[in-house]
Amino acid sequence: LVCGSKVFDFTELEASTEYDGYTVDSEAVKNFWRVAHSLPLESQRRLLQFTTGSDRVPVGGLSRLKMVISRHGPDSD
């Protein structure tokens, strides 16, 4: 039986995320994580589905995922 964990520790995901064109201190990255951490559980599940294709936490936790936040093009006002 494969069902994945129901614990959404986005701190683990944040710590394991890589950045391409951004740094951990970029304003866009800080805003993304601020919002991600403040989402209700159902919205976090949907964010996970959108970014990974699955709404389940893998065995071993969110740190097992390879997430990359990439910049595509210049910032706009």
Q: What is the assigned CATH homologous superfamily?
A: Hect, E3 ligase catalytic domain
Q: How would you spell out the order of helices and strands?
A: HEHHE
Largest sheet: spatial strand order: 1-2
Q: What's the main sheet like?
A: 2 strands, parallel
Mean pLDDT: 87
Give the helix level as a range of percent.
Answer: 40-55%
Which spans of ≥5 residues are poorly predicted at pLDDT below 50?
none
What is the top-level CATH class? Alpha Beta
Rough outline:
globular
EC number: 2.3.2.26
Keywords: Transferase, Ubl conjugation pathway
Domain HECT: 1-77
InterPro entries: E3A/B/C-like, HECT_dom, Hect_E3_ubiquitin_ligase
Descriptive tags:
77 residues, mainly alpha, Hect, E3 ligase catalytic fold, two-stranded parallel ribbon, 3 helices, 2 strands, transferase, E3A/B/C-like, Hect_E3_ubiquitin_ligase, HECT-type E3 ubiquitin transferase, EC 2.3.2.26
What can you tell me about this protein's structure?
It is globular and about 35 Å long. Strands 1-2 form a two-stranded parallel sheet. It is mainly α and 77 residues long. The protein has one domain: Hect, E3 ligase catalytic fold (2-Layer Sandwich).
